[in-house]
Specification:
about 475 residues; alpha+beta; PmbA/TldD fold; eight-stranded mixed β-sheet; five-stranded mixed beta barrel; 23 strands; about 40% strand
Length: about 475
């Protein structure tokens, strides 16, 4: 494959200002149970080559499943034809990058695709059954997911590398039904659970069957819990909820293609402008956000992005002030950056890379453990596990709901409340951040369905976060 791609790049170098090619084999497996029975067994396997060219300032892309010289040459011809058919654009340079060469592999102890199907389903069924027993628990589900991507990349600049990424995880969910409502509790996260760039060992570490009885009990307890009180309140968010808040109100807002207005077709643009760097007060002094493609276990971790830029760490917000963007080689050069942020990623072989998040993390603080943070909070609410989210196209006005909340009184977590939600305006909300738990509470949270682009691409990303406290937040009932 390396020889095939190198030969293709030799041909492309005589016909384009720049070209690259990616061979990708993507595999996925998804398993699920429903009320103690196997409900889903799905597997997929896709393999092909995507060819990207730049002629002047115009890009062309084509993909093929034909993995021979004739197939890739036809894809190159098609990509060149598409580039030549584009409206003329200035032949601006790409941000410089050393030619990527070598091999990178994510850390995997147990290959999830080598584990017997019966063993994986047995674990799910056991976790599912452990949530059952109370007649009010009407629906129980357990989930397993595994993904792998094996890639070979070559470019006309001399890049040639291979990398292999494996992701795995899962979760459980219990739905309780009362006379006029339903309530849901999930573990370790909502939307089918938590996934990391690890092997089967991460799924095992979740210990789903051990957590299952407590998940079901909380779902039932929510049926008789009082509604979340409405009005301004001090709010402590769980790590997973902070991670989603970072994703929606920071990660997407600082994607440079959105900022420049070149990505507006899917979920809009951004309230952030180029002139805001170094001056926009994004949040309080405690807010430090970093995009880091080197975090062990992160779904945004890799050796190189999909245009050959080495994975790196980039500051995004420092002490509450906007510092940088998520960028590509082209967008970085357009705004005068010395290097790309290494954020170009594509879903499989048949999509061209676009600016995507790596691991966009809120750095930990010094507020101690979650228990210590709550103990230092006289009155407020602790909100846990995302249930829904809504944010406008500019990533400015938002409303989020969580599965459960607890009132905080005199530094203690007290009665459970149901259907909590909170709303805000991005920079105002982050400006109310006044405490973040210490590194012992910080961890990466996986998100599987980050959508962007046209045609749409779904990407797996992670966000590092610890529980955090925000003052004077508008809280209501979802």
């Amino acid at each position: 494959m390396k020889e095939l791609l190198e030969d293709l790049m030799d041909s492309a170098s005589r016909r384009a200002d720049y070209a690259d090619a990616r061979h990708v084999r993507s595999r996925a497996q998804s398993l699920a149970t429903r009320n103690g029975a196997v409900n889903e067994v799905e597997s997929s396997d896709a393999e092909g080559i995507g060819v990207r060219v730049r002629v002047g300032g115009a890009w062309g892309f084509a993909a093929t499943r034909q993995l021979d010289r004739g197939g890739v040459e036809r894809a190159l011809d098609q990509a060149l034809a598409i580039a030549e058919a584009q409206p003329s654009a200035p032949a601006t340079p790409l941000a410089p990058e050393p030619a990527a060469r070598g091999r990178w592999e994510s850390e995997v102890e147990i290959d999830p695709f080598e584990v017997a199907l019966d063993d994986k389903l047995g674990t799910l069924v056991a976790a599912d059954e452990a949530m059952r027993g109370d007649s009010r628990v009407a629906l129980t589900s357990a989930y397993f997911m595994a993904f792998s991507d094996d890639e070979t990349f070559a470019s006309t600049e001399g890049a040639l590398y291979e990398q292999s990424k494996v992701d795995c995880g899962g979760g459980i969910m219990a739905t309780a039904v009362g006379e006029s409502e339903t309530q849901v509790r999930s573990y370790p996260a909502s939307f089918r659970g938590d996934v990391m760039r690890r092997g089967y060992e991460h799924f095992v570490s979740l210990a789903l069957a051990d957590a299952a009885p407590g998940v079901a009990e909380e779902a039932v307890a929510l049926l008789s819990a009082p509604p979340c009180p409405a009005g301004p309140a001090t709010v402590v968010l769980s790590g997973q909820q902070v991670a989603l808040q970072v994703h929606e109100s920071v990660g997407h807002a600082v994607e440079l293609d959105r900022v420049l207005g070149t990505e507006a077709s899917y979920a809009g643009t951004s309230f952030v402008t180029l002139a805001d760097v170094g001056s926009l007060r994004y949040g309080s002094d405690l807010m430090n956000v970093t995009a880091d493609a080197t975090n062990p276990g992160g779904l945004g971790t890799f050796g190189w992005d999909d245009e050959g830029v080495a994975g790196r760490s980039e500051p995004i917000v420092r002490h509450g002030v906007l510092y940088g963007f998520l960028s590509s080689r082209e967008s970085a050069a357009e705004v005068g950056m010395e290097r790309s942020g290494g954020c170009m990623r594509a879903e499989g072989f048949a999509r061209q890379p676009i600016v995507r998040m790596t691991n966009v993390n809120l750095e930990p603080g010094d507020a101690g453990t979650l228990e210590e943070l709550i103990a230092s909070t006289d009155r407020g609410l602790y909100l846990e596990t995302n249930r829904s989210w809504s944010i406008d196209n500019r990533r400015l006005n938002f409303q989020f709901a969580t599965e459960a909340g607890w009132e905080i009184r005199d530094g203690e977590r007290r009665r459970l409340v149901k259907n909590p939600s909170y709303a805000g305006v991005t920079p105002e909300f982050w400006g109310k951040l006044d405490a973040i738990c210490s590194p012992s509470e910080w961890r990466l949270w996986g998100l599987l369905n980050c959508g962007k682009g046209e045609p749409g691409q779904s990407m797996r990303v992670s966000h590092g976060a610890a529980p955090a406290r925000f003052r004077d937040v508008q809280v209501g009932v979802a």
